[in-house]
Amino acid sequence: MNRKHRRATSIQPPQFGTLAEDEAMPEVLVPRAAYTQQRWFNPQFAAQQADDVALAELDIRQGSFAAAELSLLQATDCRFDTTDFASCSLNKAYIRRVEFAGCRLVGLQLTDADLEDVRFSRCNGRLARFWSSSLKSVRFEHCTFPEASFDGSNLTGAVFYKCDLRGADFRNARLKGADLRGSLLAGLQVHSNELAGVIIDPAQALDLIQLLGVTIRAEEAEG
Question: Domain of 128: which CATH number?
Fold first, then answer.
């Protein structure tokens, strides 16, 4: 029974084959093109616009997709290390077995996207927008998401481990089974009915009680 539980909640890592060092790393992402089994260092795709690009088995380090518009992006079995996605728009992205480590996600717009087996670690996601997306088997570790928005997204079973969620917006999100233990929740925006089934630790209970408008006072002294 314990083994089944671990299997159900674990995040599958990227599955790489043999990665080639690409001497002719692309300078421009071509619409509907596929890029596979390569290791890229410092690729610069800032402000580019390309639809239906497929990335598979790529190890990308210190790159930039800042302000890029990549609708219908398909990313499978990829790792992004210290890569900049600030103000990047990923509309209807399909992301499977992908790791984002130390990435800049400030103002990222990820809408109507489908994520599964995705891990974010040590990422800065201030003001990021995860809107109307499905985040299945997704784990956030030591990430900062102040004032980020998850409006309308399915976060059932998602894990936020020691993240900064102060002022984040979870209204209209599905949160049953979401694990927020160890994260900062002050100023969290969420409706009371959306908290059903959320997992928190005792230290976070006071923050959530205050969000619900409950006032805690010591027992009144007898007079």
Answer: 2.160.20.80
